[in-house]
Amino acid sequence: MTCISHLESTADGSTLAAGELHNVHAGKPLLVRYDLDAVRASVTPRQWAERPGGMWRYEELLPLRDQANRVSLGEAETPLLHCPRLGERLGIDDLWIKDESRLPGGSFKARGMAMAVSMAKELGVSSVATPTAGNAGGALAAYAARAGMSCYVFMPDDTPVVNRYEAVMHGAKSWLVDGLIHQCGAIVREHQPAMGWFDMSTLREPYRIEGKKTMGLELAEQCSYELPDVILYPTGGGTGLIGMWKAFGELAELGWLKSEKRPRMFSCQSDTCAPLVPAFEQGLEHGVELENPETKAAGIRVPKALGDFLVLRAVRESGGRAMAAAEEGIRSWMELALELEGVPLCPESAACIGVLAKALKEGHIGAKEKVVLFNTGAAQKYVEVMACELPRIKPADWQPGMA
Questions:
Q1: Tens digits of per-residue pLDDT, 19-43?
Q2: What is the Cα–Cα distance from 244 to 111, expressed in whole angstroms?
Q3: Beta-bridge partners for 127
Q4: How open is the CA angle 161-162-163, to the nearest 5 degrees?
Q5: Element (H, E) at 177
Q6: Contact 327, 163 (CB under 8 A)
Q7: CA-based nearest residue to 63, from 105, 16, 127, 13
Q8: Among residues 341, 340, 336, 282, which one has the least CA distance to residue 312?
Q9: How far apart are alpha carbons 248 and 256 in whole angstroms?
Q10: Span 139-178, pLDDT tens digits
């Protein structure tokens, strides 16, 4: 049973009712707040652990009031994998990857969309729309199909082909747009009154962040509530990083963490699309706005994120950093994770490998620290980045010396 209290505006701190449909307030995202005393009185970490695995077991810290409205495709707990060979190659002793590629649709977007669509169903929504440059559109299409909702998806015309196909195959009415993700988002907002759809864009509704928050709750449980020293997270819209930092704050207020230490949050981007990095370095509240950025990591090609100030706030509060990896290294870092550990690292998370190597060299991360890197999607969804030429032979031509 949820212990939701109200929604809070990040613009001015004002309070909005939780049982009503909202997008943003004063142009800024809304955050869900809970009655933490009621949470503490209702459940313990041990009781969470005794429930069936997956994101829904944290229901007291999630917003859904009626579990009959749950829209699920079987969101299981994702593994936290120790990666000693990759760590050794990079020069770090205790490296872990939390592999979100195991979720429905092959990405972490399943968490956010499962929660957002469930809440939309509970609040009477029948039609949803979103811009997407990667996995969000396919995830929304899948959960909308599961809920029986109509779905509209707008994508930049260079969106990865698998992401395009999955939206269409799930029945979403989908378009390629001659522009970037923020221009796709403008279409959704401009035509919302005429079309009657609900805007599911990143941080333009308050519940995707609550689904993404479960990455932090799950990680805390997997670490026995002793959080790691560092978290590396690929950042486009930043919902996952904001959500995890929110989760850690809630756990701390509940008194369930074993120490006051929280992870230093590293926001990772490509150096060809890094609006948060100069903002962090210059002490700015908001990211800079980029024109026509390009990167293989489609999911973090966001020229200007609505919640950039929340990402920067979390990074600074944690003692972390916003850093960029070299774009030209993305494919090789994907290959490194696949070859050394068998983990299907997506291009966005490959940028985290580059940031980790750079942060180790510059002394921002210590070689003895426990580091968790989030793999937010499956490498297999990025066939354009994975493309390679294989040698062709006739069956009789192969010899052991060729190996």
A1: 899 999 999 999 999 999 999 999 9
A2: 12
A3: 150
A4: 90
A5: strand 173-177
A6: no
A7: 16
A8: 282
A9: 10
A10: 999 999 999 999 999 999 999 999 999 999 999 999 999 9
37-65 residues labelled b (16+ CB within 10 A) or e (exposed): eebeeebebeebeeeeebbbbbbbbbbbb
DSSP state at residue 272: T
In contact, 248 and 313? CB cutoff 8 Å = no
Q: Which three-class secondary structure state does DSSP give residue 34?
A: strand
Q: Are 343 and 99 in contact (CB under 8 A)?
A: yes
Q: Find all residues with CB under 8 Å of 43, minimum gap 6, and list them.
A: 60
Q: How far apart are CA 105 and CA 142, in angstroms?
A: 8
Q: What is the pLDDT of residue 22?
A: 94
CA atoms of 264 and 281, how far apart (whole Å): 16
Residue 390's Cβ-side half-sphere holds a number of Cα atoms within 13 Å equal to 4
Is residue 402 scored above 90 in pLDDT?
Answer: no
Per the DSSP assignment, residues forming a β-bridge with 173 are: 152
Rounded to whole angstroms, the Cα distance separating 290 from 343 reads 32
Region 80-103+208-381: CATH code: 3.40.50.1100
- Supply the pTM of this predicted model: 0.96
